[in-house]
Amino acid sequence: MTTTCTHLDQIHDVTPSAQGCEDCLKTGERWVHLRECLVCGHVGCCDSSRNRHATKHFHATGHPIIRSFEPGEDWRWCYVDEVVV
Fold first, then answer.
1. CATH assignment of the domain containing 33
2. How many structural domains compose the chain?
3. What is the pTM assigned to this prediction?
């Protein structure tokens, strides 16, 4: 594991795919917190949520960096390097 993120070049200026978890909204599920993919803008629920759609999105696409999509939070996470960005 590295102490720095090696994927910063993959961050894009994205538009959120939804104002809630895109996948939970389709199925009527609930979520705890939201995360936004900084590669494509997919909004998914966090790992404390039942469906863990943000992490599922990472495994399906390989998009490495998310940010919190919660008001007042300003952090990013790299799944690959397992570091706060």
1. 3.30.40.10
2. 1
3. 0.94
